[in-house]
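Feature request disguised as a bug: please show the residue count (150) next to NADH dehydrogenase [ubiquinone] 1 alpha subcomplex subunit 5 in the output. Example input:
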Amino acid sequence: MLRRLATGATSLFHEQKIAFHQSLYCRGLKGSTGIVGIEVDPEARQTFTEKCKAVIDLVGQHIPQEAAYRRTVENTYRHRLKTSESEMADEEVEETFSAQLEQLTKMADEELALIPLMAEWKPWDVPEGHKVEMIIEEDVQAAQPPTPGK
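Example output, currently without the count:
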Protein backbone atom coordinates (compact mmCIF):
# COMPACT_ATOMS: atom_id res chain seq x y z
CA MET A 1 0.00 0.00 0.00
CA LEU A 2 2.85 2.33 0.85
CA ARG A 3 4.36 1.61 -2.54
CA ARG A 4 1.07 2.59 -4.29
CA LEU A 5 0.93 5.87 -2.38
CA ALA A 6 4.54 6.65 -3.27
CA THR A 7 3.91 5.89 -6.96
CA GLY A 8 0.80 8.10 -7.00
CA ALA A 9 2.66 10.95 -5.30
CA THR A 10 5.54 10.66 -7.75
CA SER A 11 3.14 10.73 -10.69
CA LEU A 12 1.33 13.78 -9.30
CA PHE A 13 4.64 15.50 -8.62
CA HIS A 14 5.76 14.78 -12.20
CA GLU A 15 2.52 16.22 -13.65
CA GLN A 16 2.85 19.34 -11.49
CA LYS A 17 6.47 19.74 -12.56
CA ILE A 18 5.49 19.59 -16.25
CA ALA A 19 2.67 22.09 -15.74
CA PHE A 20 5.05 24.43 -13.90
CA HIS A 21 7.64 24.31 -16.69
CA GLN A 22 4.98 24.88 -19.33
CA SER A 23 3.67 27.89 -17.42
CA LEU A 24 7.17 29.35 -17.25
CA TYR A 25 7.18 29.55 -21.04
CA CYS A 26 4.40 32.10 -20.99
CA ARG A 27 5.77 35.21 -22.67
CA GLY A 28 5.56 37.32 -19.53
CA LEU A 29 7.60 34.86 -17.47
CA LYS A 30 10.13 33.83 -20.08
CA GLY A 31 13.39 34.77 -18.42
CA SER A 32 15.70 34.70 -21.39
CA THR A 33 15.76 33.98 -25.09
CA GLY A 34 19.08 32.28 -24.59
CA ILE A 35 20.46 34.42 -27.43
CA VAL A 36 23.01 37.09 -26.57
CA GLY A 37 21.71 40.55 -27.44
CA ILE A 38 18.07 39.52 -27.90
CA GLU A 39 15.88 40.34 -24.94
CA VAL A 40 12.55 38.72 -24.11
CA ASP A 41 9.54 40.55 -25.56
CA PRO A 42 6.35 39.84 -23.58
CA GLU A 43 4.38 40.80 -26.71
CA ALA A 44 6.66 38.96 -29.15
CA ARG A 45 3.86 37.52 -31.29
CA GLN A 46 2.18 40.91 -31.79
CA THR A 47 5.52 42.65 -32.41
CA PHE A 48 6.51 40.03 -34.98
CA THR A 49 3.14 40.29 -36.76
CA GLU A 50 3.48 44.08 -37.01
CA LYS A 51 7.04 43.78 -38.34
CA CYS A 52 5.94 41.30 -41.02
CA LYS A 53 3.27 43.76 -42.20
CA ALA A 54 5.81 46.60 -42.20
CA VAL A 55 8.27 44.60 -44.33
CA ILE A 56 5.56 43.72 -46.86
CA ASP A 57 4.42 47.36 -47.06
CA LEU A 58 7.93 48.80 -47.36
CA VAL A 59 9.13 46.39 -50.02
CA GLY A 60 5.93 47.04 -51.97
CA GLN A 61 6.53 50.79 -51.86
CA HIS A 62 10.22 50.83 -52.83
CA ILE A 63 11.05 47.78 -54.92
CA PRO A 64 9.71 47.12 -58.45
CA GLN A 65 7.30 44.21 -58.87
CA GLU A 66 9.53 42.46 -61.39
CA ALA A 67 12.51 42.37 -59.00
CA ALA A 68 13.29 38.90 -57.70
CA TYR A 69 14.28 40.46 -54.36
CA ARG A 70 10.77 41.85 -53.89
CA ARG A 71 9.10 38.56 -54.81
CA THR A 72 11.32 36.65 -52.40
CA VAL A 73 10.79 39.07 -49.51
CA GLU A 74 7.04 39.29 -50.07
CA ASN A 75 6.65 35.51 -50.24
CA THR A 76 8.78 34.99 -47.15
CA TYR A 77 7.00 37.59 -45.04
CA ARG A 78 3.50 36.70 -46.25
CA HIS A 79 4.18 33.13 -45.14
CA ARG A 80 5.55 34.34 -41.80
CA LEU A 81 2.57 36.68 -41.34
CA LYS A 82 0.06 33.96 -42.14
CA THR A 83 1.74 31.63 -39.66
CA SER A 84 1.95 34.36 -37.01
CA GLU A 85 -1.75 35.18 -37.41
CA SER A 86 -2.74 31.50 -37.22
CA GLU A 87 -4.22 29.79 -34.19
CA MET A 88 -0.91 28.08 -33.41
CA ALA A 89 0.62 28.53 -30.00
CA ASP A 90 3.76 30.68 -29.83
CA GLU A 91 5.87 27.57 -29.31
CA GLU A 92 4.46 26.01 -32.49
CA VAL A 93 5.20 29.15 -34.51
CA GLU A 94 8.76 29.13 -33.22
CA GLU A 95 9.09 25.44 -34.01
CA THR A 96 7.78 26.05 -37.54
CA PHE A 97 10.54 28.57 -38.21
CA SER A 98 13.18 26.95 -36.00
CA ALA A 99 13.67 30.33 -34.33
CA GLN A 100 12.23 32.31 -31.44
CA LEU A 101 9.76 35.09 -32.17
CA GLU A 102 12.19 37.66 -30.80
CA GLN A 103 14.84 36.37 -33.20
CA LEU A 104 12.41 36.53 -36.15
CA THR A 105 11.52 40.10 -35.16
CA LYS A 106 15.21 41.04 -35.24
CA MET A 107 15.48 39.51 -38.71
CA ALA A 108 12.49 41.61 -39.84
CA ASP A 109 14.18 44.73 -38.42
CA GLU A 110 17.26 43.92 -40.46
CA GLU A 111 15.13 43.45 -43.59
CA LEU A 112 13.46 46.82 -42.93
CA ALA A 113 16.92 48.41 -42.84
CA LEU A 114 17.99 46.62 -46.03
CA ILE A 115 14.98 47.53 -48.20
CA PRO A 116 15.86 51.25 -48.60
CA LEU A 117 19.44 50.30 -49.42
CA MET A 118 18.28 47.84 -52.06
CA ALA A 119 16.01 50.55 -53.49
CA GLU A 120 19.04 52.85 -53.73
CA TRP A 121 21.43 50.24 -55.16
CA LYS A 122 18.89 48.81 -57.67
CA PRO A 123 20.68 45.52 -58.27
CA TRP A 124 17.90 44.53 -60.69
CA ASP A 125 18.84 47.35 -63.10
CA VAL A 126 21.40 46.13 -65.59
CA PRO A 127 22.95 48.92 -67.70
CA GLU A 128 22.43 48.59 -71.43
CA GLY A 129 25.20 46.71 -73.16
CA HIS A 130 25.98 44.58 -70.11
CA LYS A 131 25.30 40.92 -70.44
CA VAL A 132 23.90 39.11 -67.43
CA GLU A 133 25.11 35.56 -67.18
CA MET A 134 23.08 33.08 -65.24
CA ILE A 135 25.08 30.54 -63.31
CA ILE A 136 23.49 27.17 -63.74
CA GLU A 137 24.30 24.29 -61.41
CA GLU A 138 25.35 22.05 -64.32
CA ASP A 139 27.88 24.71 -65.41
CA VAL A 140 29.33 24.85 -61.89
CA GLN A 141 29.65 21.07 -61.74
CA ALA A 142 31.24 20.95 -65.20
CA ALA A 143 33.82 23.54 -64.13
CA GLN A 144 34.90 21.47 -61.12
CA PRO A 145 38.29 19.77 -61.48
CA PRO A 146 38.07 16.00 -61.73
CA THR A 147 38.24 14.12 -58.47
CA PRO A 148 41.55 12.25 -58.12
CA GLY A 149 41.19 8.53 -58.64
CA LYS A 150 38.22 8.77 -61.01
